[in-house]
Amino acid sequence: MIFTQIRVEAFADIVASVEYYDRDEKEIKTVSAEDVRDTMTALGEGSSDLNPKWYVVKEAVTINDRITVTGNVHLILADKAALTAKKGIDVSAGNSLTIYAQTDMLTENTGKIAATTSDYNAGIGGSEDKDGGSIKITGGEVIANSRFGAGIGAGDGGATGSFRTGADGKALIKANSISDTSDEANWKGIIFKGTSGKVYGEQELLYDFSVGGGDTLEIPSGSKLTIPQGKTLELNHSAKLENNGTLENNGKIKKKKAVK
Q1: Which of 131, 135, 140, 133 has the alpha carbon at shortest distance from 98?
Q2: Domain shared by 49 and 17, yes or no
Q3: CA-to-CA distance for 37 and 61, rounded, in angstroms?
Q4: What residue numbers bound the domain in which 174 lies?
């Protein structure tokens, strides 16, 4: 059975009943989740491995201060929603964050997170001199960058923490770096570390996708990228596509030249 959508039905201003597809256990589950608002800088207080706390982003939300994850937090990104964390998201050792999208596949409506810092903290992970916690991204479009720390993982001077995607991840992840690559053989999704991107597992582009100038997207051996009919993979300027796996192109691959 394939379930491709999370239904969010609000029954209060803050709390929502959320149905989602658990990629690891391959079954539909329902949880109560709290709306993320622009005044929230602490997530998960009072939560634990046995008592996780759930949140849902349902619209465009900007949080100006660093967000701190405590305990065990699960975050659902509704379609067309976007969370901008202007000072990143702290997930330090002993704490965990799992991110889900509303739809099963990457589309133009997939929920987004942008967590970018210009300091020594990780974009998503430990703060300066702090070890990274446990981070799992199964879906959504996630941008995580730091000037001196990891995009995902440790703050500058800290240890790596852990990073996973789940057995059937469908996320698009762009990070300046990912500290923990010990589980990379099991990653699933389209993941960029700096200018180097890879297709992990079997992924399908359900919207026009652009690879930035200077970036490389590789399809490694054992992985597959499908471009459906009517969709375009655009390579901007000096961007490259390296196919060492399987490319099923029923759409277009377009090279965009620099404007002189």
Answers
A1: 135
A2: yes
A3: 6
A4: 8-194
